[in-house]
Structures are given as C-alpha cells and as structure tokens.
Amino acid sequence: MQFLVLLVGIIILLVLIIKVKMNTFVSLIVTSIIVALLLGMNPADIATSIKNGIGSSLGELAIVFGFGAMIGRLVSNAGGSYRIAKTLIDKFGKKRLQIAIVVASFIIGMSLFFEVGLVLLIPIVFAVALEADVPLLYLGLSMAAALSATQGFLPPQPAPTAVATALNANIGQVLLVGIIVAIPCVIVAGPLFTKLAQW
To answer: Which residues span the membrane (predicted)?
Structure first.
C-alpha cells in the first residue's frame, strides 16, 4: 500500500511539474500534502512534518552554501577564478575545456559532497565559460555529470558506501568497479550529450 502511494505521489509530482508547469517547490509541497493524506496522516500534523523535513534538509546545507558562497566571492574578487580559468584555457585549449572541467569535477567529487563541490566549482565554470566565450551549459553539464557520477558510484561517498556495506561488498572493489562505470557515464552525460544537444 505504501509503495503504491509513493508511486502515485511521484506521478502527481511529475504531472504538476511537466504538464501543469507549476513551480517545483510548490509542486513538492502539494505532493507532500497529498501523499500524507493518502497515508492516513492526521491533517493537523502535516504542516509540522513538512516543516521538520524541509528544515532538517536545509539545515545541513545552509552552512555549506553560506560559507561556500563567501569563499567563491573572495576567490572571484581576488582574481583566483580568472587565474584558474586562464590556466585551464592555456593548458587544454578551447576545444578540450570540457575535459578539463570533467577531470577537475571528478577529482573534487571523489573527496567532497556534491553540494560542496558544486559551490566550489560554479564560480570557476562561470569564469572559464566567460573567458573562453562558450555557453555556460556547455561546461556546466560536464561539471554536474562528473560530480553526480562520483556521488553515485564511488566510495567514500555516502550512497555507494551504504550500498557496499548493506551488501557486505569490498569497498576497494566497489571503488574500482565504480570508476570503470562512472567514466563512460560522465562522458555520455557530459561532453557527448552537449554535442548531441547542439544539433
């Protein structure tokens, strides 16, 4: 029953976002209320449950995004972003900038949480795109693909580590297989997809 309600909730969320074109945040709230009612939750407790759920999620990210934004601003104001952008362009050339972004994002993604990596890399990607005069999404998608792949496939990130622990798998082997799987995923979802999307 609970799985069926979850499935209905996902369908409602997709319909609200894709078909109705409702704001994503509002769609999430509406779907949360509907799912809570379908699960038999007391209507008086729904608002508190949503508040606690959103609060606990945002609470973990507030410090990361707050300080990350300040660090990004300091790096940008000090000319660090420009320097990094210039170095990447000089070393890799405009034609291979996506490879540079993918490599940097992959390395950072292996050691940092997705949110932290995102906050650190966005100012650099902006600066590189501006300096090289290329579309932001051309580099941004490659960055997001590399960060996402590391979070999904490579220990010591929480999700793959939890899966490996639950299955009693060897962490070293999971990391090795994860790298083998992650590299083609990044290539397809990043550089290859941006080239196909231009057609």
So the answer is: 5-38, 58-76, 97-130, 174-193
User: pTM of the predicted model, to two decimals?
Assistant: 0.62
Q: Are 85 and 128 in contact (CB under 8 A)?
A: yes
| 26-36 pLDDT per residue, tens | 888 899 899 98
Q: What gap in Å lies between CA 123 and CA 26, rounded to an integer?
A: 29
From CA 134, how far away is CA 195, in angstroms rounded?
Answer: 13
Domain around 146: 61-197
> Is the four-CA dihedral 141, 101, 152, 109 of positive or negative sign?
negative
pLDDT score at 186: 92
Look at the chain and report how many structural domains it folds into. 1
